[in-house]
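Sample A.
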Amino acid sequence: MGHHSTGFPFDQNSEEQIRKMMEDLGLQKQETKSPIDELGPLGTFPDGKIASNDEGAIAIGITTLHGRIVIDFGKPIHCIGFSKDEAVNLANLLFERARTL
């Protein structure tokens, strides 16, 4: 059974946690942006709408924290859909994160 939160999953002012998440997302530290700003809805529909309530592409962050794998969606969501390739990439990334624990 996992843990969940409706807020940002990291302790406030944790430079190390923020740095690791940025590395995981492939981002460089910038003075004006935090990693949380890079997550969430992108406002695009790269594969068209897959359902009438589709809100489009979403950037997610996957990292580890206190012996857990943390997936941050950048906003509350009900469901998420992945293409076959995206699902395989997600599975590989989760496996990679699990091996680091």
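Sample B.
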Amino acid sequence: MGTCIFKTSEIKKLVEHTLNAKDHREDWVKNKAPALFFVHDHGIYCMSNGVPNLVENENNFVSYAKDCDPNNDEDFYENARFIVGGDDFVETLPVDENWLKDCSEFQEFRVKVNQKSISATFAKPIN
């Protein structure tokens, strides 16, 4: 298991969307608070749980993890399996206003995955 790295510029767009949404999709425990869904299916990505979807270029906007984008990374499938394993999943990352500040101050958003937990942090301060 390993760490997924995302661009904070894309995460910020998702955070703004979920914080400004009037409604939110429920997670598996029926929580409807602002959040990002951390997803492994066809690649690894984050998406807003805000309703309606954040649409860009006629597609639902998602932020793919480094080396796990099926549109740009030839080995996305193998990379994703190496980082998070083979099973598909959706995990909820609760979001608050502090995330907007962190997106402006850091270069990367990292989600660390192991067999027992998932943790999210911001990394590499912008100089």
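B remarks: The chain has a mean pLDDT of 94. Residues 3-125 form a domain with the DNA Polymerase III; Chain A, domain 2 fold (CATH 3.10.150).
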